[in-house]
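Our preliminary data section would be incomplete without showing what the modeling component actually yields. Below, a chain of 317 amino acids is followed by its predicted structure, encoded as tokens that our downstream tools consume directly.
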Amino acid sequence: MTGLSAAAAPLVIVGPTASGKSTLALELARRTRSASPLPVDVELVSVDSMQVYRGMDIGTAKPTAAEQAQVPHHLIDLVDPAERFTVVDYATAFEAAMADIAGRGAVPLLVGGTGLYLRAVVDGLTPPPEFPSIAAELEAEACAVGEPDGTVALHRRLAELDPLAASRMEPTNLRRIVRALSVCLGTSRPFSSYGPGLQTYPEVPFRMVGIDPGRTALDELISERYRRQMQQEFLEEVRRLAGRPLSRTAAQALGYKELRAHLAGECTLDEALDVAVARTRRFARRQQRWFARDPRITWIPHGSPSEMADRIEQLEP
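Predicted structure:
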């Protein structure tokens, strides 16, 4: 049985959005904290690039106040949505959180779906420098041409400067293309030349488990999450953010972007939700492909939190 203990390597739970990572993590934490005769204090560490923003709660599926009261959570509600927050900022906050948890003799349980954040802290990757002004110029260039042609044109430009980096990303992923191309232009060296790269998977002092719902089930889980979030007044949450400045990352948050368009009168609510569901499904596919490349992850099928927790406890240590 591979439980959570102070002696075992920290456990990481990953998977696509809406796959049930947070509910599984809570189930494992509750079991371990109430175990007899040796209960262990478990604290959850979010690995989510959107849960760091204060006021963006429903749409990011952030743990509720009641859930946070049951089990301590870290790395959520770190900054306002207008603030710029990078993977380097996350890695710095992660180190502080892990030291804090260790200082209390508690056990960390990492949970989330932001692959780059996870690789940064699990593998200790140091990202290349950032060039905001160059990135802004590239985004403006793509916008002037129009989507998706503008993004595809930038991808072709990246392929000329760094064929390896271009081959590792979809030609329609504007954020990743701009990031890589801005580094190429700002440093005069290929983006793919920095560090060992994301294609290397060394041994790490973490146990990694992934949830695999399957494509059809995942599509329905995403639709169901949006139905549930709308019942929880997701639209009102977005309305409260309307008119406020948002960072580039926060402005792209799944669901928020589409509902903001509806509130601006650009589409009906049903149209906004249809686009949000479709965009979230595409994002989930990218998450699945990202994590599927990591041979260190042990996969379990989707099920109830109790069923998935049982499977994890039955894994070989």
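The mean pLDDT is 93. The two ends are 7 Å apart (CA to CA). Preliminary results of this kind motivate Aim 1 of the renewal.
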